[in-house]
Amino acid sequence: xxxxxxxxxxxxxxxxxxxxxxxxxxxxxxxxxxxxxxxxxxxxxxxxxxxxxxxxxxxxxxxxxxxxxxxxxxxxxxxxxxxxxxxxxxxxxxxxxxxxxxxxxxxxxxxxxxxxxxxxxxxxxxxxxxxxxxxxxxxxxxxxx
Length: 145
Prior knowledge:
alpha+beta, four-stranded antiparallel β-sheet, disordered C terminus
């Protein structure tokens, strides 16, 4: 009678090490994805806050801030964000052959710069630029009767 060794079912040490290595690499990739995702969420939240502050300050131009050539600055105290606002006349190049003594609207270029410290103690800034159209004051220009 010939005896054969019983066949063993199981994993070899090499197979166990290989599977742990694959598991560790997969886990590292997942952690990297989660880390990038949270960083992007924080940046997005910060930029949304800055855009909302800029929108609120731009909305004041023409209502609380007169649309005349000026420069002003201040701070959104609760948010620790500094702002600089510049309003200057904007001339549109005209290449027509008709002489125009006055325009139906006056354009002003409004530049708002917001500056703040990000979460890494780095100073960041962002510029917001728009044009505001105002009806000219014909009485001041001597055109009204």
